[in-house]
């Protein structure tokens, strides 16, 4: 289906924006009152309910894991333009400030779209691996890696 092709292309492009720290482009397709949730009791966890808070979250992601690279392995698109569900399975890698290049995380994003706008985004990944990586970043001097969650 042609619609699914364009949605998949858009989702892949959003991951590319994140990989290249293009935060304005990464949040462009978000609805003003988007719901963004990330599990885990760490600096990247929590829930946000507006586009600006999600933008601040992305900026923090770029500061606390500056070399993070997400590779999208599979994207599944289901639904019609007025209500689309997208699943994106990915692998993430990063080199931490202490020189450790073994940070790896695997995850799944679930997007809910309406007429091309993202109304909800939930991220499922190994929150213990994320917390461990953030702890290592903090031990190397990056205090923001263990600060309070950005919530709204």
UniProtKB/TrEMBL annotation:
<feature type="domain" description="SnoaL-like">
    <location>
        <begin position="11"/>
        <end position="119"/>
    </location>
</feature>
<dbReference type="Pfam" id="PF12680">
    <property type="entry name" value="SnoaL_2"/>
</dbReference>
<dbReference type="GO" id="GO:0016853">
    <property type="term" value="F:isomerase activity"/>
</dbReference>
<keyword id="KW-0413">Isomerase</keyword>
<dbReference type="InterPro" id="IPR032710">
    <property type="entry name" value="NTF2-like_dom_sf"/>
</dbReference>
<protein>
    <submittedName>
        <fullName>Ketosteroid isomerase-like protein</fullName>
    </submittedName>
</protein>
<dbReference type="InterPro" id="IPR037401">
    <property type="entry name" value="SnoaL-like"/>
</dbReference>
């Amino acid at each position: 289906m042609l619609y699914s092709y364009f949605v998949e292309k858009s989702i892949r492009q959003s991951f590319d924006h994140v990989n290249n720290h293009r935060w304005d482009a990464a949040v462009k397709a978000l609805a003003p009152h988007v719901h963004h949730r990330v599990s885990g009791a760490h600096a990247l966890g929590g829930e946000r309910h507006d586009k600006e808070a999600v933008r601040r979250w992305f900026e923090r992601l770029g500061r606390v894991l500056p070399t993070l690279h997400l590779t999208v392995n599979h994207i599944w698109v289901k639904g019609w333009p007025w209500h689309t569900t997208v699943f994106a399975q990915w692998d993430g890698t990063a080199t931490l400030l202490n020189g450790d290049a073994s940070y790896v995380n695997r995850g799944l994003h679930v997007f809910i779209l309406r007429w091309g706008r993202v109304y909800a985004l939930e991220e499922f990944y190994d929150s213990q691996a994320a917390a461990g990586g953030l702890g290592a970043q903090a031990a190397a001097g990056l205090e923001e890696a263990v600060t309070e969650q950005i919530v709204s």
